[in-house]
Amino acid sequence: MSGFHEVLFPARLALGATGGPQRQTEVITLASGRELRNATWAESRRRWTLGSAIDNLAALQVLLSFFEARQGRLFGFRFRDPLDYSSASAGSMISSVDQMIGIGDGSTTEFQLAKDYGGVSRRIRKPVIGTVQVAVSGAQPVPDWSADAATGLISFSEAPPVGAEISAGFEFDCPVRFDSDRLEGVVEAFGAGRVVSVDLVELSGV
Predict the structure, then answer these.
(1) Which single residue of 58, 63, 122, 135 has CA 20 to 30 Å from 51?
(2) Rounded distance, CA 198 to CA 70, Å?
(3) How far, in Å, CA of 191 to CA of 182, rounded?
(4) What is the pTM of this model?
(5) Residues contacting 188, CB < 8 A, separation 6+
(6) In sequence order, which ranges of 17-107 are alpha helices (DSSP H)?
(7) How far apart are CA 184 and CA 180, in angstroms?
(8) Which residues on neighbouring strands pair with residue 70, listed in sequence order?
(9) Exposure pattern of 137-174 as b/e (b: 16+ CB <10 Å)?
(10) What are the tens digits of pLDDT across the range 123-181?
């Protein structure tokens, strides 16, 4: 049975990763030359290719062990996207008012962490606990709240009042899996090894 391991892919092996978000759009060109475009995915899906940092036998063995523990594509894991891992803008410190995650209605006690990209919202399900900050109508500290590292849900013991703006700041990981059940490594000399490439793909709904 497939599942998810709450472990982080070794940061050292992720250096030099190439990739980012991917969307799928169906494009139909009419006889008039006009286009009809339809998004077939509701959300983007991220992919990365690794390999440049895995340039010695020690790194290759670390990757091999991690790959075997995940049983290839079977179990997902956390990956820290070097380009996008914080609620704050580049070069800025995390703040409890970075991202709006909801409006209080007097009864709701759970709010999903999310990040806004110019009007497009991305659900954040794998926050880094210890980095999460929360504010209610811009005020801190907020008593009796908790963050779930596995789901990205913020829970309050008492529902925020009607009209209160719930905001948060955080670092986060991306849930991914290996995109192949095969790992190809090359030992080129004594103590020297590398992989041809390692592909990771984002998991949705995890």
Answers:
(1) 122
(2) 14
(3) 22
(4) 0.88
(5) 194
(6) 57-70
(7) 10
(8) none
(9) eeeeebeebebbbebbbbebeeebeeebbbbbbbbbbb
(10) 999 999 999 999 999 988 888 999 999 999 999 999 999 999 999 999 999 999 999 99
